[in-house]
Amino acid sequence: MIVYLKSVGIAAPGIAGWEEAINVFTETNHYSPAPVEKKLATILPPNERRRATRVTQLAMYAALQTDTPERNDRSLNQCLQVFCSSNGDITTFHQISQALAMDGRPVSPTRFHNSVHNAPAGYWSIATQTKTPSTSITAYSDSFSAGLLEAAVQLNSSDNKQHRDCLLVCYDEIPAEPFQPQAHITAEFACALRLSLSSENALACMDIQIDHQSQPLTILSDPAIEHLRQANPQAAALPLLAAIARQDNKKILLPYFEQGLEISLSALAQHQE
Amino acid sequence: MTKQNKTDTNSAPLLLSHFTLTTAVGCGIEENLEALKNETSGLRRNDFLDVDLETYIGRVSAIEEQQLPAALSDYQCRNNQLAYLALQQDNFNSAIEQAKKRYGAHRIGLFLGTSTSGILSSELAYQTESFRSTGQLPDSVHFREQHNSFSVAEFVRSLYQLKGPAQVVSTACSSSAKVFASAARYIELGLCDAAIVGGVDSLCLTTLYGFNSLELVAKEVCRPADKNRQGLSIGEAAAFILLEKSDQLPAQSTRDRSNQQTPVYLQGYGESSDAYHMSSPHPEGLGAFQAMQSALQHANITAPDIDYVNLHGTATAINDLMEDKALAQLFSKPVSCSSTKGWTGHTLGAAGAVDAIYSALCIQYNFKPKSLNTLCVDPALTQNILDQTQYSTVKTVASNSFGFGGNNCCLILGEQT
Lengths: 273, 417
Fold this sequence. Notes:
The structure holds 2 protein chains of 2 kinds. By secondary structure, chain A is α+β, with helices and mostly antiparallel strands. Helices cover 30% and strands 21% of the residues of chain A. In chain A, strands 1, 2, 3, 4, 5, 6, 7, 8 and 9 form a 9-stranded mixed β-sheet that branches. By secondary structure, chain B is of the alpha/beta class. Chain B has 2 domains: 10-256, 3-Layer(aba) Sandwich (Peroxisomal Thiolase, Chain A, domain 1), CATH 3.40.47.10; 265-414, Thiolase/Chalcone synthase (Peroxisomal Thiolase, Chain A, domain 1), CATH 3.40.47.10. Chain B has helices at 4-7, 28-38, 78-87, 92-103, 119-126, 129-134, 143-147, 151-160, 175-188, 205-213, 253-256, 286-299, 317-330, 341-344, 351-365; strands at residues 14-23, 26-27, 44-45, 56-58, 108-113, 166-169, 194-201, 234-235, 237-245, 265-273, 308-310, 336-338, 384-385, 396-403, 407-414. In chain B, strand 14 (396-403) and strand 15 (407-414) form a beta hairpin. The interface between A and B is large, with 67 and 76 residues.
């Protein structure tokens, strides 16, 4: 199943954007994991900005980067939308549960609508006026691969006659404290991939399939980045993103249940400006 | 898989070869069908835990007694208990075992919808004295196996030792309608040969108090399309469907394995986003219209081919009015329609799959259920809200599901391939 990668957004400790990611992945010892900025660029109008939680802001910040000004891209709201998170918004769950443990159980209506798994997708579609189909999925620790597969499937399916592009947004927050012992996420991470059926101006071509040969998973040689890979389920994307940044032509194996997801990557550097 | 699969895609219509559901009106197809025909609601005055809200709920009895297999005891929570209870009905277990023999465990996909997962376990832990003093969750709370939204899929996957592609769709109240679309695409592209789809949502404090905070919960039973409607009744349910390619089944088995009933196919689906508001649908029903229109296009049929619409019909004024406007745009003559939420309550993340099975039953038993609990139809509504259950031929049904975040899905089910 072939899809082309048009642009990448990323928000991770020490990696604020694709330009920084290229530096981190192509230069040795370049990575220093400073926390993700508290205040993130956003397109949310003031009211929604106030209501949107951290995990929504994080997801939208990564998603927004796929709309690169150089391309003067006005078609972002024509993309199919696949949002993917292992855990969703545990901070909001924590706040609601605290309210539920109080007298009168005063649950805030805004917190309640923020608690749905598809809250970031909802905010995104409203802010960008995207009316295309939108899904929000999880496959726990295999969520990044499940999201990538879902996006590739949506683009390649015969029922998709209208859309050339799909925006994949993958994100997980650091969970609220009571859940930290069990949900082992120690770093914020979000990435967004603008995928397309068209090779025009693409960074890379990806042939994606479920691996049935149990090949070993791709890991990262830099210990600090490998540490980040293990710090968040969506950071499973890092071996793929690193290979794209280095313009490698290689096979990447990402975790996907018993099988693994195999991505045959070919760089399309000639299309870059 | 490679590009060639796109050309040898098999777009044979998918058969709902087996299905089962457990709702407030009963466990399994027979009890649900009887309740639909006898017009008996499953709603009861709220008696859920210590919830002090004056409302009615669609609670499933006997969830609490369900004991998951010992090897999967970490998954024990209300949502997975409800899933387990539902899976024991209608020989669904053996349908899965047969499908495994036919296709292999790695060729069966699993696509489930939930909005609540088993968060009740964590919510209740927050209420304990020990949590208040230590801030630590007790050992009985298993985040991955109970709380996380994927837990129900991981539970079902482990229960049947399935090895195929899997995901949970969690788009609030459209979750388990959208799983049909996901599964159909995975099958079309050859990533699996068959799929188990469904939805499981269970009562919890967040949804009861959350919808109450939005002033969307009725004090009495929900009355969809009624001029005096007050809002929704929250319910819980689990519904599972085995989807198979009709041309891959052994001869005759289509009918045999649907218990001698008319085979029902997934004819089409349509999805859209409102891009309007987080917790309110577009007042003119633009997203709902778009989802229904693309479902018709995908099914390659036109509006007059639809015999009955199973409405999202939550019994909130805003939903009922916008859904009616969307239908009025699509149908030149008023279409027969009703919401079945008066039986089950709004089962949120399970509603799409529950309504799909109810739609399949309407086709198999040729009836269109009345709008239960509706005393006086809102005169503002333009469509034919059924005040009596009609027994007449039903070949094609549209089933609507709309969720928070403006997430819409419409399924078309029919007896034609």
